[in-house]
Automatic annotation (TrEMBL):
EC identifiers of the protein: 1.3.1.-
Annotated TM spans: none
Protein name: tRNA-dihydrouridine synthase
Single GO term (MF): oxidoreductase activity
Domain of life the protein comes from: Bacteria
Family indicated by similarity: Belongs to the dus family.
Classification of source organism: Bacteria, Pseudomonadati, Pseudomonadota, Alphaproteobacteria, Hyphomicrobiales
A UniProt-annotated Pfam family: Dus
Source organism (scientific name): Devosia rhodophyticola
Cofactor: FMN
Function recorded in the entry: Catalyzes the synthesis of 5,6-dihydrouridine (D), a modified base found in the D-loop of most tRNAs, via the reduction of the C5-C6 double bond in target uridines.
PROSITE patterns: UPF0034
PANTHER family named in the record: TRNA-DIHYDROURIDINE(47) SYNTHASE [NAD(P)(+)]-LIKE (PTHR45846)
Keywords (A to Z) from UniProt: Flavoprotein, FMN, NADP, Oxidoreductase, RNA-binding, tRNA processing, tRNA-binding
DUS-like FMN-binding domain: residues covered: 21-298
Length: 333
């Protein structure tokens, strides 16, 4: 496949380019999506939102509905009952969503034990009742994110995608692993081509895309219209926009370094505190502070790293960010 130089449409919504930020629970909250969008991501997707909890007004699920910026607001819902998925879609619509994504892909036991997420690939008929409920509930475009199947004996993504599109779904994203794999082994992009050949809507390939090289290979092998980047964006939310620009033949944004990296990490930290409140926010921010260190190849002494990640005083953390992310603590070449 040639490099993507076109705009991908999801119903009436337009993606800025063909590199999207994947939904990741506890990670792609509003602050993270906001940064990825600023650096040029083609589309960003909310954290997974449990439809039943949202329907009963659970504060954490309501928080996850927050829009990050000016890109189409894609809200991902998970559940196993049509009534809750329908209500969740209606609430998301009223809250300003532009696209509703249905989760058929999460491998977490907490999710699959309730026959939600990737467990739905074992019960296609039930999965389609959820699609039908959401499509009927809202005029918004509906999309689905799935895996190749439950296991290697049940690679039914193409059939599931075909049925979902027949029910009104307007984009399919496929993670190139089965549920049984969780995140082990390597993602397989070539089998996604079966999904591409089965439907007449855009297909997005996901899994192990961490660079422009892997993005191009994933597109070539799958025939997909776009890539979705998940764990590869941890600690480098600018990567999604860089890949999107390069696929479009444009100049990518530079990775922040030195004072620019310090300012970005400080901003992200402060936005997380605003999003969650200080008591929860300092814990929610720790993983991001650590990922920024790793992605930027900054090595700290064990005591310094512990102080940074365990401090619950915002002013002290901001001061440590200025000290530690300035570029003076990088690993030796």
């Amino acid at each position: 496949m040639s490099e993507a130089t076109y705009q991908l449409n999801i119903g009436k919504q337009n993606a800025r380019n063909s590199a999207f930020l994947a939904p990741m629970a506890g990670i792609t909250d509003r602050p993270f999506r906001q940064i990825a969008e600023r650096f040029g991501a083609g589309l960003v997707v909310s954290e997974m939102i449990a439809s039943a909890a949202l329907g009963t007004g659970h504060a954490e699920m309501v928080r996850k509905l927050g829009k990050a910026g000016s890109l189409p607001h894609v809200v991902q819902l998970a559940g196993c009952e049509g009534q809750w998925m329908q209500l969740g879609a209606e609430i998301a619509h009223d809250a300003g969503a532009d696209v509703i994504d249905i989760n058929f892909g999460c491998p977490s036991k907490r999710v699959t034990n309730g026959y939600a997420g990737s467990a739905l690939m074992r019960v296609p008929d039930q999965a389609m009742t959820l699609v039908e409920s959401v499509v009927k509930a809202t005029p918004l475009p509906v999309t689905v994110k799935m895996r190749l199947g439950w296991d290697d004996d049940n690679l039914n993504a193409a059939d599931m995608a075909r049925r979902a599109v027949d029910a009104g779904v307007q984009m399919i994203t496929v993670h190139g692993r089965t549920r049984k794999q969780f995140y082990k082994g390597e993602a397989r992009w070539a089998p996604v081509r079966e999904v591409v050949n089965a439907v007449n809507v855009p297909v997005v390939v996901n899994g192990d895309i961490t660079s422009i090289e892997s993005a191009r290979e994933a597109l070539d092998l799958s025939g997909a219209a776009a890539v979705m980047i998940g764990r590869g964006a941890q600690g480098q939310p600018w990567l999604v926009g860089q890949v999107g620009a390069l696929l479009a033949g444009a100049t990518p944004p530079e990775s922040p370094k030195g004072p620019d990296l310090v300012a970005l990490v400080q901003e992200h930290y402060e936005e997380v505190l605003i999003e969650y409140g200080t008591a929860i926010g300092f814990r929610a921010a720790r993983k991001h502070l650590d990922w920024y260190l790793e992605a930027s190849e900054i090595v700290l002494e064990k005591a310094d790293r512990s102080r940074l990640l365990n401090c619950d005083q915002p002013a002290e953390v901001l001061a440590m960010i200025e000290q530690f992310y300035s570029g003076e603590c990088r690993a030796a070449a």
